[in-house]
Amino acid sequence: MASSEHSDSDDGMDEFMDKFKTQRYKNAFSENNWKEEFDKIPMFMKKAPEEINPQEYPELACLQSIIHDEDRPPEEQAKSLKDEGNAYFKEKNYQKAVVAYTAGLKKKCVDQDLNVILLTNRAASHFHLGNMRSALNDATAAKKLKPDHLKALVRGAQCCVELRNFSEAMQWCDEGLKVYPTDAKLRELRAAADKHRRAAERDARKAKSKEKKLHGEKEALLSAIKARGIKLLQPAKPPQNGSDSEDEDERSSAAIAELSLDGLSSQEVTGAQVCLDEEGSLHWPVLFLYPEHQQSDFISAFCEKNCFIDHLAVMFEELPPWDADRKYLPQNLQIYFEDEQKETLYQVDPEISLLKILQHKRYFVKAGTPSFIVLVKGSSYWKQFLSGRKINGL
């Protein structure tokens, strides 16, 4: 009888094993995705998911609900959130860490040591995110709760260095060194802050000296221009509401009458600016315009003592490629400047120096760059260009 029961039991097991070999366990992991399935189990997770879906991560959702259980004391909730933030911090997910630490601080627990940890940890997260001002605010708040907290003191000093507040960084270090006189990090930070502070002060002195020198040079330049009676046309200002043309003319005249650095703005346009040499001579950037061919020449430093013919002889020693008719010879050229206000052209004697032209009562230097129109005398374009225009000789 016993033998029969034993035989039946064996037969049943054999049947079960045969069935197990042919049918898979319904809840078993797939051979293809077992790693992904393991990664959904909190114990085996290598990294927490960005968003927790209860259906996809039921165990993790359960753990999270325990962590955030509002029925627990605030201290327990804050500690759980601190641990959650630390986990994110280790994963270098600093934004998530900030959220967790912030949530912990919002619990307003009475454990000030825990609050200090939450603040310093959030400061560290902000620091790694590059939010130096927020990190400094957290370090300051932590120091207020616990003035001798080493991490808060170190973090505050680091933030001040990054914000280039070197003197303030040294103050943070000095406060810390009173409590921790041998701390290597505080000593290192103080030395670095002091070095940066001295370098910044040196750079500031150099910049101030350079600015003072440049200002002196510009003032000397303006004095030289004023002494010669040269008029600078200031950049036009936008008209105010309700202004009429007469008011604009008055403002234009006032701008011409008053010399200022605004009238020397050619450097922005041409890359050159009038300068005063050691002998007291002015060198101007000068523009020659050839309207017939829509071409131009630029002289970066035309000495005021030089005559126009001196430059024209060099410029047209070899005729330019756009002069197909080979007519732009120095002896064929006529030079003019335009008085836009009176709509008048003034012919310039090429044997006259630049200074004499700039001192003419109707010449105004526009944008710091004197400009002149060059035409070929007797050409068809010359006749067309001058036709109907008022022309005065010098």
From TrEMBL:
Record GO terms (molecular function): Hsp70 protein binding; Hsp90 protein binding
Pfam families linked to this entry: TPR_19, Wheel
Gene Ontology, cellular component aspect: cytosol; nucleus
Renumbered residue ranges of the record's region Disordered: 233-253
Coiled-coil blocks: none
Top-level taxon in the UniProt lineage: Eukaryota
BP GO terms, sorted: protein folding
Repeat in keyword set: yes
Family as reported in the entry's similarity comment: Belongs to the TTC4 family.
UniProt-recorded name of the protein: Tetratricopeptide repeat domain 4
Lineage summary: Eukaryota, Metazoa, Chordata, Craniata, Vertebrata
